[in-house]
Automatic annotation (TrEMBL):
<dbReference type="GO" id="GO:0003824">
    <property type="term" value="F:catalytic activity"/>
</dbReference>
<dbReference type="InterPro" id="IPR023631">
    <property type="entry name" value="Amidase_dom"/>
</dbReference>
<dbReference type="InterPro" id="IPR000120">
    <property type="entry name" value="Amidase"/>
</dbReference>
<dbReference type="Pfam" id="PF01425">
    <property type="entry name" value="Amidase"/>
</dbReference>
<dbReference type="InterPro" id="IPR036928">
    <property type="entry name" value="AS_sf"/>
</dbReference>
<feature type="domain" description="Amidase">
    <location>
        <begin position="30"/>
        <end position="460"/>
    </location>
</feature>
<protein>
    <submittedName>
        <fullName>Amidase</fullName>
    </submittedName>
</protein>
Length: 481
C-alpha cells in the first residue's frame, strides 16, 4: 500500500478527480492511500487531530458502488480531504483547538464543507489550528504543535497550519482554511503552497454564523493555482441568509487554469505595483526581501509594466486591529465569563480588547476604513495588482509563539511580525500567496499578489503566470519526518 500511496501523493486535485471520474482509480484505493499516508507521516507532523478512517472508507465504498451503478456524481467524488478544525463537519468533532470544545461534535456542515461534500469530497478528519484560530503559529493545549514538512523544527504558520502541512506533505492535494490576518497566506508561504484569501462574499458568511463578518474569510490552499481556482469555481457563490453574498459569476475557469490547455503565461497588458516592503512601511528579513525582490524581473520578462510603488496604507493597521478585536469580542465574548482561565493569555487579551471598544474607537475605524478604500482605489487606478512579500520572516522555530525579533528589533506582540498580510486584510482586497523561492537553508518563501475587490480570478491568473514561469511550486519536501 505504501507504494500506491506514494504514487498518488503528488497528483493534483484535477489529476486525481479525473482518474476517479474515468474509473481508472477507485475511491476506495484513493482513500486507502490517504489513510496510509496519514498513519505514516502524521505522528511527526502532528497535523491531523481528529481522524475517522473507517467512516471515510465506508463512504469511499459507497462512491464506488454508485459509480458502478451509473449514478451521477460530483466532480470531486471520491477525493479524500481533512478539514480545518474550525470548520463544522456534521457528525465529526470540531474543537477549535480548545479544551473548552474538546468533545464538541458538530450537528451540521458549515457552508464551505457543505459545498465540498456536494462536489463529492469525502471528509476524513480535522487539521490542527491555534486555540480559536488566534495566531499565525499552529499550537494549542489540546493537541500540541504542528510542524513544517520542509523542516520539522520550524513552524507551519497558522491558523490553517495543519491544513498546509498535510497538503505540502502529499497527504491530500488541496484543502479548506480561513484567513483573518494571513491564516491561509502565511501557511502557504511557509510550506511552498498557493493560498487564496478571497474577496468578501465569494464564500459568504451565513446565519447561524455572523452574516456581517468581513475581516475573516474562508478560502483554499493547494499545491497549484489551478487547483485553488477549481475549488473556488465549485464552492463560491451566493447563499441563502448570507446578505453579503457576491452574486456575479466567479470566472474561475479558462485556459489559464486548465493544465491541458496550450496557455502561454504572459502579462503584456498588466500594470504591477511592486513593493516588497510596502513602500518602506514594514520590516522584511534580508533573505526574504532578496528572494521576493528578484521576482520583479520575472514580471518584466512576462511583459508586465512594473513600477516600484505601493498604496497608502496609513489607515490599515488601525482598521485591522479594531475590526479583529470586534470580531473576537462578538464571537467569543461569552467565553471570558465562563472559561477565562482555560484561554491562553493572548486570546483573553484579544477578546477583552473587543469588549472594551468604545464608540469613538468604532467610529474612528469606520472613517479610517473609508480612507483606506479611497487609497486603494487611487492605487488601482494606476496599477492592476500589487506585489509584495507574504511573510516578512522565514519559517521560525516551532518552539516559539511568534518570532522574537525582526531585523534586530523586538517583536512586540504576535501580530507585529505579520503586517504584510494584516494590512492587506484590512483593505478587503483578494490576495494570494504563491511560491517564490527558497532560502539558503531550503525554507520556502511566498510572494503575495493583491487585486481590487472582486477580481479574484484575475489575481489567480497573474499568480498562475508567475507559477508557470518560475516552477517553484514543483519543489517537494524531502520529508525527513
Amino acid at each position: 500500500m505504501t507504494a500506491v500511496a506514494d504514487e498518488l501523493a503528488w497528483l493534483s486535485l484535477r489529476e486525481l478527480s479525473a482518474l476517479l471520474t474515468a474509473g481508472e482509480l477507485s475511491a476506495t484505493q484513493t482513500v486507502s492511500a490517504h489513510v496510509e499516508r496519514v498513519a505514516r507521516l502524521n505522528p511527526a507532523l502532528n497535523a491531523v487531530v481528529t481522524w475517522e478512517p473507517e467512516t471515510a472508507l465506508a463512504s469511499a465504498r459507497a462512491v464506488d458502488d454508485a459509480r458502478a451503478a451509473g449514478v451521477p456524481l460530483g466532480p470531486l467524488a471520491g477525493v479524500p480531504m481533512t478539514h480545518k478544525d474550525t470548520h463544522e463537519v456534521a457528525g465529526m468533532r470540531t474543537t477549535w483547538g480548545s479544551p473548552i470544545r474538546a468533545h464538541h461534535v458538530s450537528e451540521r456542515d458549515c457552508l464551505v464543507v457543505a459545498r465540498l461534500r456536494a462536489a463529492g469530497v469525502i471528509a476524513t478528519g480535522k487539521t490542527n489550528v491555534p486555540e480559536f484560530a488566534a495566531g499565525a503559529h499552529t499550537f494549542n493545549p489540546l493537541f500540541g504543535t504542528t510542524v513544517n514538512p520542509y523542516d520539522p523544527t520550524r513552524s507551519a504558520a497558522g491558523s490553517s497550519g495543519g491544513a498546509a502541512a498535510v497538503i505540502a506533505a502529499g497527504i491530500q492535494p488541496a484543502g479548506d482554511g480561513s484567513d483573518t490576518g494571513g491564516s491561509l497566506r502565511l501557511p502557504a508561504s511557509f510550506t511552498n503552497l498557493v493560498g487564496l484569501r478571497p474577496t468578501d462574499g465569494w464564500l459568504p458568511h451565513a446565519i447561524p454564523e455572523n452574516p456581517w463578518e468581513w475581516l475573516s474569510q474562508d478560502g483554499f490552499m493547494a499545491r497549484s493555482v489551478s487547483d485553488v481556482a477549481l475549488l473556488m469555481e465549485l464552492c463560491s457563490g451566493p447563499a441563502a441568509l448570507a446578505p453579503q453574498s457576491r452574486c456575479e459569476p466567479g470566472g474561475f475557469t479558462g485556459p489559464a487554469f486548465d493544465a491541458d490547455a496550450d496557455w502561454e503565461p504572459e502579462l503584456r497588458t498588466l500594470r504591477v505595483g511592486f513593493a516588497p516592503d510596502l513602500g518602506g512601511r514594514i520590516e522584511v528579513e534580508a533573505e526574504v526581501a532578496e528572494i521576493v525582490g528578484s521576482a520583479a524581473q520575472v514580471f518584466d520578462d512576462l511583459g508586465a509594466r512594473v513600477a516600484w510603488e505601493a498604496p497608502d496604507l496609513t489607515a490599515a493597521a488601525g482598521v485591522f486591529r479594531v475590526a479583529r478585536a470586534f470580531e473576537f469580542g462578538f464571537n467569543y465574548g461569552s467565553l471570558l465569563d465562563a472559561h477565562a482561565q482555560q484561554l491562553k493569555p493572548a486570546l483573553r487579551a484579544n477578546i477583552q480588547a473587543g469588549l472594551d471598544l468604545s464608540r469613538a474607537d468604532i467610529f474612528d475605524a469606520l472613517r479610517e476604513r473609508a480612507q483606506l478604500l479611497t487609497a486603494m482605489g487611487d492605487f488601482f487606478a494606476r496599477c492592476d495588482v500589487l506585489v509584495t512579500v507574504t511573510s516578512q520572516v522565514l519559517p521560525f522555530d516551532s518552539d516559539l509563539e511568534y518570532p522574537a525579533e525582526l531585523n534586530g528589533a523586538r517583536v512586540t506582540d504576535y501580530l507585529a511580525w505579520m503586517e504584510a498580510t494584516t494590512l492587506i486584510s484590512a483593505t478587503g482586497c483578494p490576495a494570494v500567496s504563491v511560491p517564490a523561492g527558497f532560502s539558503a537553508a531550503g525554507l520556502p518563501v511566498g510572494l503575495q499578489i493583491v487585486g481590487r475587490p472582486g477580481v479574484d480570478a484575475q489575481v489567480l491568473r497573474v499568480a498562475r503566470a508567475f507559477e508557470l514561469a518560475t516552477g517553484w511550486g514543483q519543489r517537494r519536501p524531502e520529508l525527513a519526518v
